[in-house]
Write a structure and sequence with these properties.
The chain is α/β, with parallel strands linked by helices and 301 residues long. The protein has helices spanning 14-19, 59-71, 98-112, 126-131, 146-154, 169-185, 217-224, 233-237, 243-253, 279-295, and strands at residues 35-37, 40-42, 49-52, 76-78, 116-119, 135-138, 159-162, 192-196, 199-200, 211-212, 229-231, 257-261. The strands form 3 sheets. The protein has an 8-stranded parallel barrel with strand order 3-4-5-6-7-8-11-12, surrounded by 6 helices. It binds phosphoenolpyruvate (PEP).
Length: 301
């Protein structure tokens, strides 16, 4: 869906666009980046769905998840091997899988063919994460880690840039420009997808929900940038019953891709059990989204 910027200069000034985000700014109303990652087109009519557990807990769990996600029509497998836990202690249930988790993701890819998106948090781990993934994910907490963005850009791979949960659209686009600059230096078109994952809001409707999905940022970003824009309703809502409505709403709002957490035993997920969807819930969402996609000229297949 092409969203026209009818009032350029209102929030991002012409100078901002020319001087701060020349590479990620749209050059014309229909300017839209489409790129292929792991054989899947992003930014075109297909709305790829990136699903998987929060954490790559075991090899069996990630392979089982990948098979179920593939069977329901998911396009990418997600899962964290390096985890930005908001507190430093590991529980008996949770340990950070790190390099082992990356290897298990590769096994799941071999078994199902699903391309992998996983988070990279440290410059020193970019090479190893890149070897085991098709798309490098920058998490919300690292959106403004500029040295990391620059080095990730130098890898020349597709990047998902999550929005910092306290960041404006302007800050998000300027962060994306760091990656785009490195892609440009490599002679590539920018291969970046922007992911809205919930922002801090004064009222979130449940005490356990820390963030709120900023659906409005989907068309707002598409007014200004040619990069694909997606959402992650699992992290945004932090509450599984709200994931399906926000997936449907994101699709209807024009999201170019969707991310969600899917787990074989959600209530016993090692991390973020409240937001994880079961295989059955995922299958139900995929079925519900197909007619919505078709109504707006998009597709999930
Ligand atoms: C994740 O997707 O696993 C994650 C930690 O996301 P965020 O950076 O949005 O919290």
């Amino acid at each position: 869906m092409a969203v026209e910027n009818k009032f350029p200069g209102k929030d991002l000034s012409e100078d901002d666009i020319a001087q701060k985000i020349p590479l990620v700014a749209k050059k014309s109303p229909d300017h839209k980046t489409v790129f292929t990652c792991g054989g899947i087109e992003i930014g075109g009519p297909l709305v790829p769905v990136m699903a998987g557990p929060n954490t790559v807990e075991t090899e069996d769990l990630i392979v089982e998840s990948a098979k179920a996600i593939k069977a329901s029509g998911g396009h990418f497998l997600r899962g964290g091997a390096f985890k930005p836990l908001s507190f430093p202690y590991r529980s008996p249930k949770f340990f950070e899988p790190r390099e082992d988790g990356l290897k298990w993701l590769s096994v799941a890819k071999q078994e199902t063919g699903l391309p992998i998106v996983t988070e990279v948090m440290e410059i020193s781990k970019i090479d190893v994460v890149a070897q085991h993934s098709d798309m490098l994910q920058i998490g919300t907490r690292n959106m403004q880690n500029y040295p990391l963005l620059t080095e990730v850009g130098k890898a020349g791979m597709p990047v998902m840039l999550k929005r910092g949960y306290g960041s404006s659209l302007r800050d998000w686009l300027m962060a994306a420009e760091y990656i785009a600059l490195e892609h440009d230096r490599l002679g590539m078109e920018p291969q970046i997808v922007l992911c809205e994952r919930g922002i801090v809001a004064p009222h979130t409707h449940r005490s356990t929900s820390r963030f709120m999905l900023d659906l409005q940022v989907v068309p707002a970003a598409q007014e200004v940038t040619h990069l694909p824009v997606m959402t992650d309703p699992s992290h945004a809502t932090f509450w599984q019953p709200w994931v399906k409505p926000m997936m449907l709403a994101s699709l209807a709002a024009g999201a170019d891709a969707l991310m969600l957490e899917v787990h074989p035993d959600p209530r016993n997920a090692a991390v973020d059990p409240l937001q994880a969807s079961s295989f059955e819930e995922f299958d139900d969402m995929m079925r519900a989204m197909r007619p919505v996609a078709s109504a707006i000229g998009r597709t999930l297949d």
